[in-house]
Amino acid sequence: MKYIFVTGGVVSSLGKGLAAASIGTLLEHRGLKTLMQKFDPYLNVDPGTMSPYQHGEVYVLDDGAETDLDLGHYERFTSGVLSRMNNLTSGQVFDSVIKKERRGEYLGKTVQFIPHVTDEIKLRLHKVTTDNPEVDVLITEIGGTVGDMEGLLFIEALRQFALEVGKENVCFIHVTLLPFIKAAGEIKTKPTQQSVAKLRELGIQPDIIICRTEADLDEDNRKKIAMFCNVEKKNVVAFRDVAHSIYECPLDLRRDKIDRLVVDKIGLGDTPAPALEDWERFVQRVIHPLHKVTIAVAGKYIELQDAYKSIYESLIHAGAHHDTKVHIVRVEAEAIEDHGAAAVIGDVDGILVPGGFGDRGIEGKILAAKYARENKIPYFGICLGMQIATIEFARNVCGLKKANSTEFEKATEHPVICLQEEQKGIEDMGATMRLGSCESIVFAGTKAAELYNGADRIHERHRHRYEFNSDYQEQLTDAGLVISSVSADEGLVEIVEIPDHPFYLGAQFHPEFQSKPNHPHPLFAGFVAAALAKANS
What is the rounded distance in angstroms from the CA atom of residue 415 to the CA atom of residue 400? Predict the structure, then answer.
């Protein structure tokens, strides 16, 4: 196996994840089998208990691992299906080291950062290598910024690992920022020089430097960076701000032939040039669509771009599938409570209520669902959004005015949404929800069955504690709510829908975690199709 390690310098949020994912895209289109992973230096075991304000969305894998949102980019940009082995945090590393010490596995030795902690990090690299013999290239992104105290052990582990597997099998890529000083009218390379110097102090000489830049990188600055950072000029690559979509990133990096630089470094230079026609066609449909729809997303963390990252990307995938631009209107759920759905949401082609936790903005989301149902606006509820649709239907169609979820009102008179039985008595918050891929049965003759092309079994990823209360199933279905999918093992309600509506569907799972650029998730594709039909009418 060959290895690519992607580090970052100067500032955070540079786009290391997108750079790594784009390299994965280019290598896959050269016919190579790639696998991606993320090393995060924070002490949390995983991001599952972090606030979206701190970390953005939590991305869930098939095996139930709660991971960094960059793993979403990895799965969307490449064909790899990732597992908990593809995300390592300092919390996991230290937890494993301490457990080994308590079991006496170190045979009385003094446990130290080097070699014991660095060995634990390298162990993950070796295990992923052993478990994936079919993979040609393992791409690992290191979170944080070079020079941060918390990331030093990861950098040291990579230095050791490169020596062990042979430097000819390893490519180090460093992503830095080239700030453009408007007053001076020029790009400054000094931060990049200092960042690379810091990395070299830690024993790693980058093979390729990716420069994040607003403007193009001229030859003089490319030459200066090469000289001061001890790399060849051709290995200084510009990573420009893309104009329209993150899916332009692989095409932008391809301009400087980064895939050729990488394969030459790791001895795979005999692979063909990447065949990017399908990817280019997708990007063109994103940039130059024939149609347009407006969809309101009513959420709790709506001001945060990364809080609903996978949902926004899934809407883009579905829009491109229908040659349609999806204009997203971000609606603060609390604003609906204050001013009403009609005033805040207005005339849109679709309404989406995403997942979430806590009672803030809940009544606003319920009003949004009511507004969509009564005005025949396509509605798509995801996780909490499905529960919202159920509560709204119970209150305003079934006449259960006090209907609610026990998450928001423990003593509610009509708990149409309640805590899962297996969740009762659980005290730990981390990794204790219903997580990961579960099999569900889809009932024939429903909208869900139509969207899944008649499939009677599906596998979707979950992340929730509360569920549809089966005690109210007969009352709600008698009033017209259709249950179109249940879990195969316990019969938990997975999808609800209203048949006499252009599109009114709620899914307990998270379909956004399985949508890809040229393979949009069928529920998103159906939702955008319904929104387009409304727009055209």
Answer: 10
**Would you kindly state where each structural domain of the chain is located, as residue ranges?**
2-281, 290-536
- Between residues 302 and 162, which one has the greater pLDDT? 162
Residues 460-488 pLDDT 10s: 999 999 999 999 999 999 999 999 999 99
Band of pLDDT at residue 269, cut at 50, 70 and 90: confident
Bond from prior residue into 115 cis (ω within 30 degrees of 0): yes
In the predicted model, is pLDDT for residue 423 greater than 70? no
Residue 123 pLDDT: 96
Q: Return the higher-pLDDT residue of 357 and 450.
A: 450
User: What sign results for the dihedral spanned by CA atoms 372, 522, 64, 486?
Assistant: positive
Q: Which residue has the tokens 């937890």?
A: 95
Q: Name the residues annotated as catalytic.
A: 383, 510, 512
* pLDDT at residue 431 in the model: 61
Sign, Cα dihedral of 358, 364, 367, 371: negative
CA distances from 274 to 1, 25, 253, 266 (A): 20, 9, 12, 17
| Cβ–Cβ < 8 Å for 507, 467 | no
Q: Which two tokens stand for residue 419?
A: 């805590």
Separation between Cα atoms, residue 67 and residue 133, nearest integer Å: 24
3-state secondary structure 392-458: HHHHHCCCCCCEEECCCCCCCCEEEEEECHHHCCCCCCCCCCEEEEEEEEECCCCHHHHHCCCCCEE
Residue-by-residue DSSP string for 3-51:
EEEEEE-SSS-S-HHHHHHHHHHHHHTTT--EEEEEEE-SSSSSGGGS-
Q: What is the pLDDT of residue 432?
A: 72
* CATH topology for the 290-536 domain: Rossmann fold (3.40.50)
What are the angstrom distances between the C-alpha of 61 and each of 80, 84, 197, 492?
11, 7, 36, 20
Token digits of residue 359: 């009672």
Q: Which amino acid is located at 520 in the chain? A: P
| DSSP code of residue 320 | H
In 3-state terms the chain splits into helix, strand, coil percentages (rounded to 5) of: 45, 25, 35
Contact between 123 and 100 under an 8 Å Cβ cutoff? The reply is no
CATH 3.40.50.300 is right for the domain spanning 2-281: yes
- How large is the average pLDDT for residues 322-332? 96
What is the distance between the alpha carbons of residues 58 and 239, in angstroms, rounded to a whole number?
A: 26
Whole-number Å distance between alpha carbons of 11 and 64 = 31
The reply to whether 290-536 shares the fold of 2-281 is yes
How many separate helices (H) and strands (E) can be counted in the chain? 19, 23
